[in-house]
């Protein structure tokens, strides 16, 4: 009998394998068996580290928000809401599989768990704080509403681009910038 060795390297390999399978083969191939094979381990490794498919989705979701927040932090610190919109798009284009798990339900038969949803909400509240810092005249409720509007708008542009549903794919960046300028007019005068 071969002992199963469970290490943080194995956890990372499984997570990377899950992202690869999802990116390359789509959600239908996102199975514990396929991911374990890609990672070079048994299915026991996947269950040990993640508890199964739902745990993998949660881990991708949480890891994505950690990376996403790190990418937007410099723009938030600068007080430039336009820079945060550009950082949002850049991060999404650089991390499409994470983005689609976080915002596009890339694995539709698995809903994010409570911890993953809380992590996503924490990320959104950073945007609310950013909006409030730029527009201190807004009430908390108004800052929340503006942040929701900004988030939904840039999300829509990026999701359209990433899923290939754009009617003008050769102008995606130009149209994003135009939309961003219009969206942020109340912040920039």
Which helices and strands occur, and which strands form pairs?
Elements: H1 8-25, H2 32-39, H3 43-50, H4 53-78, H5 81-94, H6 96-103, H7 114-134, H8 140-162, H9 172-188
Poorly predicted sequence stretches spanning 5 or more consecutive residues: none
Question: Given the structure, what is the number of helices?
Answer: 9
Q: Which value, in Å, is the CA radius of gyration? A: 19 Å
Instruction: Look at the structure and name the CATH superfamily of the largest domain.
Output: Tetracycline Repressor, domain 2
Strand content: under 5%
Total number of strands: 0
CATH class bucket of the largest domain? Mainly Alpha
Q: What is the fold-level CATH name, i.e. the topology of the largest domain?
A: Tetracycline Repressor, domain 2
- Give the tally of structural domains: 2
What is the string of SSEs from the N terminus onward?
HHHHHHHHH
Largest sheet: none
> What's the CATH architecture name of the largest domain?
Orthogonal Bundle
Mean pLDDT: 92
Helix content: over 70%
Distance between the termini: 70 Å
Question: In terms of structural class, how would the helical and strand content be classed?
Answer: mainly alpha
User: Shape, please?
Assistant: elongated
